[in-house]
Specification:
Largest sheet: none
Structural class: mainly alpha
Helix content: over 70%
Radius of gyration: 17 Å
Shape: globular
Number of helices: 8
Distance between the termini: 38 Å
Order of helices and strands: HHHHHHHH
Number of strands: 0
Strand content: under 5%
Length: about 170
């Protein structure tokens, strides 16, 4: 049975191959390139190759900003990925800035109560908790929980994850 590390390596190889194919086949179709860059960045991040992952996340962000403008939900997703990367690198202040930017974009696109908004609110809560801002983290978790409960119910994994975040305070 393959271990998680070898599975990640296999996935990385496939995403790298897909990225190369997309560069050739879809050079005029930016969104495909962005998705491939983002997916490859996720695999690299999961493998612990954070600097290389950062380059691919930044590439995806640049492509999506060019294709959609700076206030599009696709851009918010790219910014969120960079926020998670910065958090993993221990750069909590910068991660907070990225999550706050993604939150503003998602709120403008979806309204104040949407699961995509709740996901970023929860991520921001995690960063705030790690910075020792417990009251603010609790408020963010409570907001995310309310939204997830409304849209997804109490048993959905996202709702359960936020409940666990609240219980960890």
């Amino acid at each position: 049975m393959e271990n998680d590390e070898s599975k990640l390596e296999i996935a990385r190889q496939y995403f790298e191959k897909a990225l190369e194919i997309n560069k050739t086949a879809y050079s005029g179709y930016l969104r495909r390139l962005s998705a491939s860059a983002n997916n490859f960045g996720i695999i690299l991040k999961d493998q612990g190759n954070l600097e290389r992952a950062r380059r691919f996340f930044r590439r995806a962000l640049a492509i999506d900003e060019l294709a959609y403008g700076t206030r599009h939900p696709e851009v918010a997703m790219d910014i969120t990925n960079l926020g998670f990367l910065l958090k993993d690198q221990g750069n909590l202040a910068q991660a907070q800035i990225y999550f706050e930017r993604a939150l503003k974009i998602n709120e403008a696109a979806y309204g104040l109560e949407h699961p995509n908004v709740a996901g970023v609110v929860n991520s921001l809560g995690i960063v705030l908790k790690e910075q020792g801002e417990i009251a603010s983290a609790k408020a963010h978790f409570a907001r995310a929980l309310q939204i997830f409960r409304r849209f997804l119910g109490d048993k959905h994994p996202s709702t359960v994850a936020v409940k666990n975040n609240i219980n960890s305070l």
